[in-house]
Every structure is written in structure tokens, then in C-alpha cells.
Amino acid sequence: MGGVIARQESQANRLNPGGLREPVPLGELPGETRETPHGPLHLVDQWLEPAHCHGTVPVRGALTVDPSVVARLALDPAFEAVDPRGWLFLDTETTGLSGGTGTLPFLVGMAWFEDQSLRLQQLFLPRPGAEAPMLHALADALRKATAIVSYNGKSFDWPLLRTRFVMNRVPCPTIPPHLDLLHAARRVYKGRLERVRLVHVEEQVLGMTREDDVDGSEIPGIYMKYLGGDLDPRMPGVIEHNANDLIALAAILAKVAEGYEGRRVADDPRDCLGYARVAERAGDAARAREFAEAAARGGGSRRTTIEASLLAARVARRAGDVEGEGAMLALGLGAAGEQADLLAAEVRLALAKHHEHRTKDFGCASEHAACTVPAETESERDKRVARVEARRDRCPPEGASGTATSR
What we know:
Blueprint: E1 32-36, E2 39-47, E3 53-54, E4 57-58, H1 67-74, E5 87-94, E6 105-114, E7 117-124, H2 132-144, E8 147-150, H3 153-167, E9 178-180, H4 181-189, H5 198-206, H6 219-227, H7 235-261, H8 269-281, H9 285-296, H10 302-318, H11 322-336, H12 342-359, H13 362-369, H14 378-394
């Protein structure tokens, strides 16, 4: 990331008449101070080239995402009507992580597309009590945006900013639809990522590793040192950290939407299963089945294969595809092997229902029904077995047919 330059010498023993050390002059910070109708506003303003990549992902891919795909990833139909040219990427750096009225957002980072370039604008708070110019600038950007894109912004950044609007008596704008990528990333990537912090998604999904990055836990202390009169050499790194967060938002949006739009052979089965779950929840049955079958046949772990097989079978059943349902349950049964755990029991339970209600192969249904604990209680199992066997006794053997291999 370029374009952020700062003098880094320490400022010491600068006293005001009251004996308290004054903040570092704004001229010694990255960016510039501009006069606004609401007071001076210090900001860092820069553009990325259209071809800029964050890791392996072209950032401008966020500009061409299909709004219907975003609506499915967000599980929110409001995004169907969003114009991607109006994304406002939003991220803050604060004096603490607890939120509440005692926490200040001292750096508000915003980014949006101008033509093919991503413009970054970072608003810096020079001292407590001088928030009005920053908040008015943010409000102007929000009014122009078609949607907000953040990472944990629904739970942290926006509630904090809304509080600052109220406390500073600055009219709080009505915000457009808010896409919190933390939720989308968790739904898709939780199968293979132990943690879904933004930096972990960057490294494991975008192929981006930050060098000499300032850890988020250190940022409040760096700002407090600035307020005390010392320019910590890491302050430019804080601004760089925030800029990288903004760029990562655009790249993650582009990446997760690209993955939903078209599966590639090299995709991780765990990601395919994540996409299948999102698609199923969004009512996109065709993509749910495509992703689930890819995950089931992708050579992944036993758990991934079984869970994907069950999902694919479930979608096939809703579509009335009895043969397809049976084929996916047979695949799940093969992955279950000889183990008698919950996963295997869930496959057996699905097969018992499949054969009892759809293929009418009561012999297979009875065999599987006997092995459904702990997917259901022993009492439920016994009732199921008794019911299936009673139905088998009433039907001639030649009336049974099956589409899935039983054990």
C-alpha cells in the first residue's frame, strides 16, 4: 500500500499553559487538513489503480458482482436492487473494543469506486470533542451510498458511529442496506477456517499476508499516546492498517461472490458445502444441489462428505427426484463406513425415511431404521421399526423397489 507518508520523530515535552501535554500538530500526521463548514477536517485521500489486487484478487471485481448473488450471500432480498457502483466500504479504528459512549472512533475509513478505481478516504479525529466535521463528512458519504459494506460493522462499527452522531447532535442519516461480510464469510468459510477474523480470511482465502502490520490490540494505545503529545512511530501503520482493511472488504466481496456464481474444480469441498448451505437458506435450490454434490464428491473429509450428501439428498427430495435423493444417500452411507456415530445415524435415518415413504422398500427401510440412534431416541427408533415392519407385512415382497444400496 503506498501513498501514506509520515514524519515519525517523537514529540516530547510539549506543554500547554495548564501543564497538560498537547496533541501532536496535524501537520506531522499523514494526510492534510481541509476547512469545512463544520470545522477543520483531517483526512488521508488516495486512489488505487484499476488493476490493483489484494493478494490474488482484483479489487475492482467488487464493482461487477451480481446484486442477486449478494442478496443470497447476505440472506437479504434488499440487495437485489443495489447498484454495485454505489458500495461504501466502511471501517473504523477506535479507542477500545467494548463500544459504548466511552469509546471513540478516532479514524473512520471509507472507500468507494470512482470509475474503475477504488478511492480511499480516511477521516482522523485530532482530539476528543472535534468529531462534528468527521461525522458530517461520513453522513454525506452515507447519503450517496447504495449500500454499506463492513466486517462486523453491524455489531460494532455502525452502532458506535450512530452513538457518536447522537452524542454530538449531528443528524444521523438513514443508512442504506448494510452487508456485513463477517456473516457471509463465516457461512462460507467456517468449514476450513478456525477463525474468520478479517486478517485470517485475507491470508487463507485472498492469499494476502500483511507485512509489518500493526496489531489491532495495540491501536488504542498508539492513539492515546498521540493525544498525550507523542507521535508513535506506528501511527502511520495504524492508518495503513485501516486502509488495508478497506481494500480487503472490496476483495472479500469480490471473492465470495465469484465463488457463488461459479464453482471451479479446484474449490475446497468445505467451501462448496458452505456455499451449498447459503444457497439452500436463500432458496436457490439449483445452486444448493450443485455445490452440495460437488462437496460430496470432492474427496473431502468424512464429515464434509456426509453432511454434503445429506444436503444434496434433501434438495433432491424437495424437487421430487427420488432417484437423485437415493444416490446421494448411498454416497453418504459409503462415507459413514462402519462407525456407529451421530453422522452415520443421520444417514441411516434419512435412508429409513427415503425407503419407507418414497421407494416403498420396507425391507431396506427396516434395516436402516434399526440403526438411527443417536439421530433419534431409542423410543422413536422402536416406533419407527415397528411401523415399517407392520407396513412390510401388509405389502407383498415383489412390490418393493429400491434406488440406493443398503448395508
